[in-house]
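Lab manual, section 2.4: Encoding a predicted structure.

Procedure: take the sequence of the chain (116 residues), apply the prediction step described in section 2.3, and record the output as C-alpha coordinates. A sample record is shown.
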Amino acid sequence: MDILQIIRIVILDGGIIIAAIYIVSKLISSITKYILTYKLTKLKLSNDYKIQSKKQSNQELAIKLSNLNDKFDNLHIEDDIIIINKQKELATEKPRRYNRNQEVELTVKHRNSSES
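Recorded output:
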Protein backbone atom coordinates (compact mmCIF):
# COMPACT_ATOMS: atom_id res chain seq x y z
CA MET A 1 0.00 0.00 0.00
CA ASP A 2 1.24 3.35 -0.76
CA ILE A 3 0.77 6.41 1.40
CA LEU A 4 -2.05 7.93 -0.72
CA GLN A 5 -4.22 4.83 -0.30
CA ILE A 6 -3.65 4.89 3.47
CA ILE A 7 -4.58 8.59 3.58
CA ARG A 8 -7.75 7.92 1.52
CA ILE A 9 -8.79 5.04 3.81
CA VAL A 10 -8.17 7.13 6.94
CA ILE A 11 -10.11 10.09 5.51
CA LEU A 12 -13.03 7.89 4.39
CA ASP A 13 -13.10 5.89 7.63
CA GLY A 14 -12.69 9.06 9.65
CA GLY A 15 -15.55 10.70 7.75
CA ILE A 16 -17.78 7.70 8.36
CA ILE A 17 -16.93 7.75 12.06
CA ILE A 18 -17.58 11.49 12.28
CA ALA A 19 -20.88 11.06 10.42
CA ALA A 20 -21.87 8.20 12.76
CA ILE A 21 -21.03 10.30 15.83
CA TYR A 22 -23.05 13.20 14.37
CA ILE A 23 -26.06 10.96 13.68
CA VAL A 24 -25.93 9.39 17.15
CA SER A 25 -25.65 12.81 18.84
CA LYS A 26 -28.63 14.13 16.84
CA LEU A 27 -30.60 11.01 17.74
CA ILE A 28 -29.78 11.40 21.45
CA SER A 29 -30.70 15.10 21.40
CA SER A 30 -34.04 14.43 19.65
CA ILE A 31 -34.89 11.63 22.12
CA THR A 32 -33.98 13.89 25.05
CA LYS A 33 -36.07 16.71 23.57
CA TYR A 34 -39.03 14.34 23.13
CA ILE A 35 -38.74 13.05 26.71
CA LEU A 36 -38.49 16.56 28.16
CA THR A 37 -41.43 17.76 26.05
CA TYR A 38 -43.49 14.77 27.19
CA LYS A 39 -42.65 15.36 30.86
CA LEU A 40 -43.35 19.10 30.64
CA THR A 41 -46.68 18.44 28.89
CA LYS A 42 -47.61 15.87 31.52
CA LEU A 43 -46.63 18.30 34.31
CA LYS A 44 -48.61 21.12 32.68
CA LEU A 45 -51.69 18.90 32.35
CA SER A 46 -51.30 17.85 35.98
CA ASN A 47 -51.04 21.48 37.11
CA ASP A 48 -54.02 22.45 34.94
CA TYR A 49 -56.05 19.66 36.58
CA LYS A 50 -55.00 20.82 40.06
CA ILE A 51 -55.89 24.43 39.23
CA GLN A 52 -59.24 23.35 37.78
CA SER A 53 -60.05 21.23 40.84
CA LYS A 54 -59.09 24.12 43.15
CA LYS A 55 -61.34 26.48 41.18
CA GLN A 56 -64.17 23.97 41.40
CA SER A 57 -63.72 23.52 45.15
CA ASN A 58 -63.56 27.31 45.56
CA GLN A 59 -66.80 27.64 43.62
CA GLU A 60 -68.43 24.97 45.80
CA LEU A 61 -67.20 26.80 48.89
CA ALA A 62 -68.52 30.08 47.49
CA ILE A 63 -71.94 28.46 46.99
CA LYS A 64 -71.94 27.19 50.57
CA LEU A 65 -70.89 30.61 51.84
CA SER A 66 -73.53 32.33 49.75
CA ASN A 67 -76.08 30.07 51.42
CA LEU A 68 -74.70 31.26 54.75
CA ASN A 69 -74.91 34.83 53.49
CA ASP A 70 -78.68 34.56 53.67
CA LYS A 71 -78.37 34.00 57.41
CA PHE A 72 -75.68 36.55 58.22
CA ASP A 73 -75.51 40.17 57.11
CA ASN A 74 -71.77 40.53 57.64
CA LEU A 75 -70.59 37.96 55.08
CA HIS A 76 -69.82 39.07 51.52
CA ILE A 77 -68.23 37.23 48.59
CA GLU A 78 -66.58 39.24 45.84
CA ASP A 79 -64.55 37.65 43.02
CA ASP A 80 -63.64 34.51 44.99
CA ILE A 81 -62.50 36.69 47.93
CA ILE A 82 -64.38 36.19 51.14
CA ILE A 83 -64.83 39.38 53.10
CA ILE A 84 -66.23 39.17 56.59
CA ASN A 85 -67.22 42.60 57.85
CA LYS A 86 -67.22 43.32 61.54
CA GLN A 87 -70.45 44.21 63.22
CA LYS A 88 -71.79 47.59 62.19
CA GLU A 89 -70.65 49.59 65.18
CA LEU A 90 -69.16 53.01 65.53
CA ALA A 91 -65.42 53.09 65.20
CA THR A 92 -65.07 54.60 68.65
CA GLU A 93 -67.06 51.83 70.33
CA LYS A 94 -65.30 48.70 71.41
CA PRO A 95 -67.03 45.51 70.36
CA ARG A 96 -68.81 43.76 73.19
CA ARG A 97 -67.24 40.53 74.27
CA TYR A 98 -68.96 37.98 76.41
CA ASN A 99 -67.56 34.77 77.64
CA ARG A 100 -69.77 31.74 77.89
CA ASN A 101 -70.66 32.30 81.58
CA GLN A 102 -71.82 35.85 80.93
CA GLU A 103 -74.03 34.65 78.09
CA VAL A 104 -75.61 32.09 80.36
CA GLU A 105 -76.20 34.71 83.05
CA LEU A 106 -77.77 37.05 80.51
CA THR A 107 -80.04 34.28 79.29
CA VAL A 108 -81.06 33.40 82.85
CA LYS A 109 -81.74 37.03 83.70
CA HIS A 110 -83.80 37.40 80.56
CA ARG A 111 -85.87 34.32 81.39
CA ASN A 112 -86.35 35.44 84.97
CA SER A 113 -87.48 38.90 83.92
CA SER A 114 -90.01 37.48 81.44
CA GLU A 115 -91.48 35.14 84.04
CA SER A 116 -92.22 37.90 86.57
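Check your result against the sample. The two ends are 132 Å apart (CA to CA).
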